[in-house]
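Structure request: Phospholipid scramblase, Geotrypetes seraphini.
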Amino acid sequence: MSAFEYSSNLGATNQEPQQDPASAAYGTVPAAPSLHGIPPGLEYLAQVDQILIHQKRHSWIQYNSQYEILNTMGQKVYFAEEQREWCGPRLDVGITNNSGVTVVHLLLPTDCCSYDMELQVHSPPLGTLIGYVSKNWEAFKSTFYIMNPAKEVVMKIVGPGWNRKAFSDVKFEVTTPDESFLVGQIIRTWRGMSKEMFSSNDHFSVQFPLDLDVKVKAVLMAACLFIDYLYYDQRRNENN
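Returned structure:
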């Protein structure tokens, strides 16, 4: 077993943790207690088997993406914001908790001589690498590798092929490296024709086993943002 642990019991139901009424009134989750072996700020992920990611573009001309990361009750867990700089990284996203503290940092470095698509995922303490998301160039389908800090492949994300159905949810399957077991899913939700035509915001759900290593859950969360960047944001920016 690699440094990342995973389970194939996808679909097991899990009750959301009890919320503090004051926190629920404001639509946010309370701070989770510190847990041994879990990077600070990621403790809440240990309690859930699904998160929702809602893009928050306020107009078609907004250049940087923002996201609310929610539990299944719609309460905000994290906020993600893309940073854009001239000659800066191709992708630079900070994920903060409800206190505004950065808990995950996504970085796709600039390399003018390379087409490598290897996203770095960091967590506290500052600069601690917890994994990578690597785009794998394959004909007729989208695939990504989820890797630990030693660049060992621990999971694979297999996207839809060219024959996927239009006007429906788009599913990216999270599997074991050999694709023999389904571990989870990243789903871009089809919101209906009118919303898809007149709103630039994407909605995703990320599903994983409850007992999955929290660092892997964070890397899968990062993978969802990476997928949005590669397949949806860039197309929108090209069309504007």
